[in-house]
Write a structure and sequence with these properties.
Layout lengths: L1 H5 L5 H21 L1 H7 L4 H22 L6 H22 L13 E2 L6 E2 L1 H19 L7 H19 L4 H17 L4 H24 L7 H13 L8 H13 L23 H34 L3 H25 L17 H18 L18 H8 L1
Antiparallel strand pairs: 1-2
Helix pairs in contact: 2-4, 2-12, 4-14, 5-6, 5-7, 6-7, 6-8, 6-13, 6-14, 7-8, 8-13, 11-12, 12-13, 12-14, 13-14
């Protein structure tokens, strides 16, 4: 064990943030899991805690293994992984849309280990690596829209379209993060506006198709519309039951909270150990605990920018921002949903919420960031023409 700690490289602050968030997660997960035991009537609180511990242990194994890989290796890996991801997305989409009230078109169920795997989370990481690779290859070439359609936008739209029917929020986050990464990579803004318009058009066509042929995507568009209506409707209805319980939890938490394990709303709030775990945290640890958790995510964002600024190549810079920004963005969305600043999305709180695939993909992203910050394995040298003064990312890096 001591030897493992001695071999840990990379940004120590990011290691510390990930470890602290993971350790803290045991308290709210153990507390909120009582809802699954006594209300839903499945498993035991210790059983859920042990499962959460195993998932995090495997996740940190992923971090440790990935942070030892030189960053430039991810260029080739993205080319191999992207077709695999597309096949997995097609496979889960072909499974159907519902079974027993749950959405099967998001998961691949692993029969031996008993875990579910969500390919959309892997697709998000792989796609960001692929986009970073694209901009590292064209950094000295004038980008035209026509020449970028097939190598850049075709994979992006394929991934988003395959995820969209089952998980609108994840598809929207991936598309938004790709747009941010394209802006930082120097993609012409006038073309980005065209891509946004194309995305809106595709979404409109999908919604109209789903409305005209409801058997194709049963309940999905209705679910989106219901969440948006609940968000815009100030009256208490059955549709916004979850968010009302979350607000009650936050309101009763006060400044210092009720104390660890003393949440009341965990017994009434669905998804209290995953999507709405932030509300339980505020109820038990108060505004102090809620703001402290937000501080750690914002500090993680700061360290991500620092690592990107110190990276030696354009690919490394874009890679760190591409896989790092979605972690913080997802955390802020989860918190915003709990306080009703955003419609219900079903996004977990990274490294805190219970769940396997999301935690593992967060750990994969953190491992990649640590790889870029691991100076002992960086084998790419920075050339004099590596800096492009017209690139927004380079301007940002030069100012930090």
């Amino acid at each position: 064990m001591l030897k493992i700690f001695q071999n840990i490289k990379g940004d120590k602050a990011i290691w510390a943030i990930a470890a602290l968030l993971a350790l803290f997660s045991f308290l709210p997960v153990y507390s909120a899991s009582s809802n699954l035991v006594y209300v839903v009537g499945s498993g035991t609180t210790v059983g859920y805690l042990v499962k959460h511990a195993i998932l995090l242990f495997l996740g940190f194994g992923i971090i440790y293994g990935i942070h030892k890989i030189p960053t430039h290796f991810f260029k080739g890996l993205s080319m191999i992984a992207l077709p695999i991801v597309l096949v997995l997305l097609i496979f889960v989409l072909a499974q159907g849309t519902s079974s027993g009230g749950t959405n099967d078109s998001r998961w691949i169920h692993l029969p031996i280990v008993g875990f579910g795997f969500q390919p959309s989370n892997l697709a998000a990481v792989v796609l960001m690596i692929y986009v970073a690779r694209y901009f590292s290859k064209v950094r000295e070439i004038k980008i035209t829209f026509k020449e970028s359609i097939v190598p850049l936008w075709l994979p992006v739209f394929l991934v988003v379209i395959l995820i969209l029917p089952a998980n609108f929020s994840t598809a929207a986050i991936i598309f938004s993060m790709v747009l941010v990464l394209c802006f930082l990579g120097g993609y012409p803004i006038k073309y980005l506006f065209g891509i946004v318009g194309t995305g809106i058009l595709c979404l409109t066509i999908f919604i109209l198709t789903a409305k005209a042929f409801p058997d194709l995507f049963p309940n999905r568009v209705d679910t989106w519309m219901s969440r948006i209506d609940s968000f815009s409707n100030p009256e208490d209805t059955e549709a916004n039951y979850q968010i009302e319980k979350a607000k009650i939890a936050i309101a009763t938490g006060g400044i210092v909270g009720k104390g660890a394990g003393k949440s009341i709303q965990k017994n009434f709030l669905p998804q209290s150990s995953s999507d709405f775990i932030y509300a339980i945290i505020v109820e038990e640890y108060g505004l102090i605990g809620g703001f402290a958790l937000m501080f750690f995510y914002l500090f993680l964002l700061f360290r991500i920018v620092v690592v990107a600024n110190g990276a030696t190549t354009i690919f490394s810079k874009l890679l760190v921002l591409g896989v790092g920004l979605p972690i913080v963005f997802q955390a802020l969305i989860n918190m915003a949903v709990a306080v009703e600043l955003f419609p219900v999305t079903g996004q977990n709180l990274p490294l805190i919420s219970s769940g396997g695939t999301s935690s593992w993909m967060t750990c994969l992203a953190i491992g990649i960031i640590l790889s870029a910050s691991n100076k002992s394995i960086v084998q790419e040298s920075t050339s004099a023409n590596d800096i492009d003064e017209t690139n927004p990312l380079e301007i940002l890096s030069g100012q930090l």
